[in-house]
Amino acid sequence: MAQKPSNVAYQVMWNRLISVVEEQAQALVRTAFSTSVREAGDLSAGVYDTQGNMLAQAVTGTPGHVNAMADAVAHFIRRIGRQNILEGDVYITNDPWEATGHLHDITMVTPSFHKGVLVGFFACTAHIVDIGGRGFGADAQSVYEEGLYIPIMKFADRGEVDKTLVRIIRGNVREPDQLIGDIYALATCNEIGHRRLVDMMGEFDLDHLDGIAEFILDNSRRATIERIAALPQQTAEGEMTMDGFEKPITLMVKVSVEGDKIVSDFTGSSGVDKKGINCPLVYAKAYACYALKVAIAPEIPNNAASLAPFEITAPENTIVNALHPAPVALRHIVGHFVPDAVYDAFDKIVPGLVPAEGAGCLCNFQVSLRPRTDAPAPADAHRSEVLTFNSGGSGARPEHDGLNATAFPSGVMTMPIEATEHAGPVIIWRKELRPDSGGAGKTRGGLGQYMEVGAQEGHEFDIQAMFDRGAHPARGRRGGQNGAHTTIMRSDGAAMHVKGKQFVPHGERVIMAFPGGAGYGEPSERPMELVKRDLARGYISAETAAKVYGLSASEIAGVEAAIAKGDPS
Amino acid sequence: MKSSSIRLGVDIGGTFTDVVLEKHGKSFSTKVLTTYTAPENAIIDGMHQVCAKAGIAPGEIEQIIHGTTLATNALIERRGAKTAMITTQGFRDVIEMRTESRFEQYDLNLNLPEPLLPRQMRFTVPGRVNAKGEILVDLDRTEVEAVVYKIAQAGFESVAVGLIHSYLNPTHEELVRDVLEEKLPDVSVSISSEVSPQMREYERFNTVVANAYIKPLMASYLGRLEDRLREKGVTCRIFLMHSGGGIISIQNAADFPVRLVESGPAGGAVFAANVAARYGLDKVLSFDMGGTTAKICLIKNQTPKTARVFEVARTYRFKKGSGMPISIPVIDMVEIGAGGGSLAHVDAMRQIRVGPESAGSEPGPACYGRGGERPGVTDADLVLGKLDPESFAGGSIKLHPDNAQEALANHIGRTLDMEASEAAFGVAEVVDENMANAARVHAVENGEDLSEYTMIAFGGAAPLHAGRLCEKLGVERLLVPPGAGVGSAIGFLRAPFSFEANRSVYMKLSDFDGRKIKSLLSVLKTEATSFVRTCDEISPILSEFKVYMRYSGQGWEIPIDLTEEQAMNPDAATFEARFEEDYTKLFGRPVEGMDIEITVWSVNATTPPEKVAGVNAIDGEAAAKAAGQRPLFDAAMAQYLDADIVNRFDMSSGERATGPVAIVEDETTIIVPASRDAIRQPDGCIDVVMKG
After folding, report:
1. Contact state of A537 with B120 under an 8 Å Cβ cutoff
2. Partner residue facing A418 (CB), from B154, B156, B164
3. Across the A/B interface, how many CB contacts are shorter than 8 Å?
4. Burial A338-359 (b: 16+ CB within 10 A, else e)
5. Distance from the B574 Cα atom to the nearest Cα atom in chain A, whole angstroms
6. Closest Cα of chain B to A63: distance in Å?
């Protein structure tokens, strides 16, 4: 029997496990077919002890998987049954409630055996291209219409892949080769983690992970609780309202700092929506937890112990705790607003820490292009689906302006428009910052952006809009002003909606302006040199500089003269 | 190919300018302090020193090869020209909007780096090219003239032109350039279709802006340098090391100064590649560790691995995404914020963290005794017996073990209930683990298994840590070459003349067009070759063909090397087979049923590598003579052991020193763990091998 490793050895092992899961995640990014994985980092990878406690998780583009992943492996252990967990097995599911919130995420779990004994698990999740059903959108009435459901089950049994399952999957999705490719990529990514874990156990002469698990979890728990204990032990309420589909959705939350935990209770939030923007609790929990953790304990790595003190509750059948069979495909829209609601409450407990409201959900849209139907189409016209990820402005921080056209709380990247235009016969005519969209304040909200999209000659298209903040712009904090709201219209002047699938005839474009973040503090307190800088850069117009920030006509003329001379600012 | 027999290599680094003169196989080197205001002064000074040592006049030098961090520093410190950008209407903010993401998820106060040019310096023109390279909207000359007029009024010195899809059709960019050159003959112009003809507007625009931004500065510096050298009697041609590990002419360097970024580290990789060639090693991991960072590079078949994009001027803990992307051919290196000066602390989880914050040289780590109170890696190395307090840096800096002990006890030991020595062990283990993890991840990303690799270590701190790194990585053999302190400058003298030309053009294998491929690759070959020809009129020029491929739908291309035969007689089946072979190597299995596409095409023209005299590595028998003994902490055994001290220059060829042993020289100390022995090879390399 190996002797107990030293503190130094544990230090090294913890580092190593974090490196292993990052490596696992990188392997997925490189091999996945799904745009949202490779461009947006919509994936996760983690390592677990034999009890299903998450020991380390890769930091990826989405906080949405944080808690969901932490809970998932326990569900796998329960469903598969300990006695059936065998070397060479690989498990799979896309259960929205027991994994990561919608059918488009496939989660795979691999038990890790060392010297014939179960020592832990690896899990990873990726957003996949298509899972059949109605396709990615909010139009389903229930989860049954949203695609193929794969309950927690064995994908491989002692190394033998379940060919029946593979045939069923292939027969139910639009891009079977890509999906099966992604499933294998997920399995490979766990395998990479497993091999590195076994190497580490060899190097440190370990027979099990109990010691290192205890070291990681104890230190993480203690560090997290220390942070919580240092906060004012208070309760505060917050709320925010978003556009929703047909009617606005309100998120209500009561945040209570209670010694060794913080409880966020979403009682009072809107009920389940008819459209597929409902959140299973795991997903809302992930974003609430992310919001609090990034504010008070950002450097503590995610694991079972560092996440446990953040408790989230919500009544059943609310928009943040939608139960089966509610439709959940676009659960990210509501999920991305959860931090704004939590911050509305938390700002009352710890003032001066959290930002003002920002754009919230990503400004994503999908265009479905096809040959024009109103007149003969050219021979090379073809059908194509193009999905893009875009961001509005983030909310102003107490000491810093909000970030221009940068995602928060999501961490996704946009795609180069040159790449988007290679993906299908789409033309992005404009993608640039939207002046005057950042809410004014002592610190300014981040600017949103303009986008203009059309099709190549000979094509018409539908646009699936997944925007919000059309009627509910980001609200300023402590005297800061609201950010600009979302607008969308057709180039011929026809009105359009911020959500839903809408037709765009041949020759027309969609003109969009994505929301800005809100300001923080009174605009009158903004340092004049920053107002002048913003004017010089065109972040604000001369009108705003004069009206909102009180810049005089001669000061404005001075800035304009500096621009003409090419002086930097 | 190198007919010249008296050659000078010059590397301007952040602190020192290294100068190496080779005369008929003998080498003379010096280090002089970099003179920031006029970097050429240090070169002249260093050149005179080595010429004196070699007993020659500057006029006898037959070739000068120069690499410099000046371009990099100008970008980091934002000391470029007054520069404007002209871009496509609707896309004014591409270099500012970046990827629309936060490179650090867990920091509410994160700020993104400012673009090189603020918004008011970015102008737009109409005109639009589509993804097939067809013109959708014409660009009218009068519209360009209107913008050029504004640029003239504002007095810009340099202009970057970056238009959407210009890599497919450069005519609009060329029109803008022509108008600029006509109206503003004194203004320097850079166009993206020449500087970096690759798809992805953010990277391409940023690259052309960076080029424009440093072009006047670098052109002026290179001009001055040439004048000063001529004044001193130098008559030979002067060449520049580029980031891809080859040499270009001074004129090309002045036109494309962005290619000089990272030329110093590239020299280091070439230096390691040359050692690899001497030993006939096909799989080498180069490891360079200095005061603030460590760099790791994979060298296969004696050629450093290259990439198409890298990041310069990272602003946030060396984090990916926190710098600016530059898409030029570059030697692919992982840089970690881990060096001798990196500081250690204990975080909220009672974990020891090391770097990237560095003590620098002032005040330096605690053991320098210059007022530094926080423990650095050097403090840990000292307490662990890896360094001799009396002979650090050739005895020029006296180290204070008491200060190191105290700093480690105060900042690490007290919180973690550890003795100073255990704290030192912890710090060293964490920094070594960080570097080992970076190396492992880099290897995995490239489908490589490091246990088949040999490590080559250079740079002041690398030999102190390389032995432990090898243990952690399962690397069996470590070579520490002589001259490691001026490795980059030596590397310059080993580099071939080379230039890589590349182009983004999409092609699916299902639409494979062999004629088009042949014509494209021929154009690239001609372009690359002509650059090399301006440097070397007689040597044969080899062409290396590479295409970047992926399954349609993936976002990540993998580089596929093609033989000249495969490139010039292209057929879809061969491309597919080559792709699947490499894909399988990287990711375990091919994906059935998917179409495959090619996204980027590249041709590297290069003169043949220098003939290298192989070293017959010997298996040392005779025991090296110890100059003394001291306790040395062995990380694998987790305890102090009695270790010999051997002077590197007392070791004769074939002598073996048995680990644990410290092999000392002025510039550094090679720590040989108990698991290994060290043999002095005939070329002066210290060969650290597994026992038994």
Report:
1. yes
2. B164
3. 234
4. bbbbbbbbbbebeeebbbbbbb
5. 22
6. 8
Q: What is the pLDDT of residue A39?
A: 64
Calpha distance A195→B220 (Å, rounded): 54
> B272, B490 in Cβ contact below 8 A?
no
Q: What is the ipTM of this complex?
A: 0.94
Give the Å distances, CA to CA, from B565 to A498, B561, B572, B580: 55, 12, 14, 19
pLDDT band, residue B1 (cuts 50/70/90): very low
Segment B87-105, tens digit of pLDDT: 999 999 999 999 999 999 9
Average pLDDT, chain A: 94
A303 at B interface, C-beta within 8 A: no
Query: Mean per-residue pLDDT for B593-618?
Result: 90
pTM over 0.90: yes
Query: Omega before B356 cis (within 30°)?
Result: yes
Residue B386: partners with Cβ closer than 8 Å, 6 or more residues away: B464, B632, B633, B662, B669, B671
pLDDT at A366 over 80: yes
B-facing residues of A in 171-230 (CB < 8 A) are: 175-178, 180-181, 184-185, 188, 191-192, 196, 203, 219-220, 223, 226-227
Contact (CB<8Å) A298/B440: no
Residue with tokens 């919001």: A291
Residue A130 Cα to chain centre, angstroms: 18
Across the interface, which of A33, A355, A569 has its CB nearest the CB of B108?
A355
User: Residue B455 has which token pair?
Assistant: 């490590």
B111 vs A contacts (CB less than 8 Å) = 400, 403
Query: Among all residues of chain A, which has the CA nearest to that of B551?
Result: A33
Closest Cβ–Cβ partner in B100, B201, B593 for A177: B593
**Total residues belonging to chain A:** 569
In 3D space, the residue among B362, B440, B434, B367 whose CA is nearest the CA of residue B407 turns out to be: B367
Long-range contacts of B129-132 (CB under 8 A, 24+ apart): B129/B163, B129/B164, B129/B165, B129/B166, B129/B168, B129/B169, B129/B172, B130/A421, B130/A427, B130/A456, B130/B165, B131/A418, B131/A421, B131/A422, B131/B165, B131/B168, B131/B506, B132/B168
List chain B residues with CB under 8 Å of A14.
351
Q: Which of B97, B347, B441 comes nearest A433 by C-beta?
A: B97
* For range A541-558, the mean pLDDT: 97
Helical H segments across B346-419, by residue range: 377-383, 401-408, 414-416
Asked if A37 and A25 count as a contact pair (C-beta separation under 8 A), the reply is no
> Is B422 in contact with A7 (Cβ distance < 8 A)?
yes
| CB-CB contact of B323 with B311 (8 Å) | yes
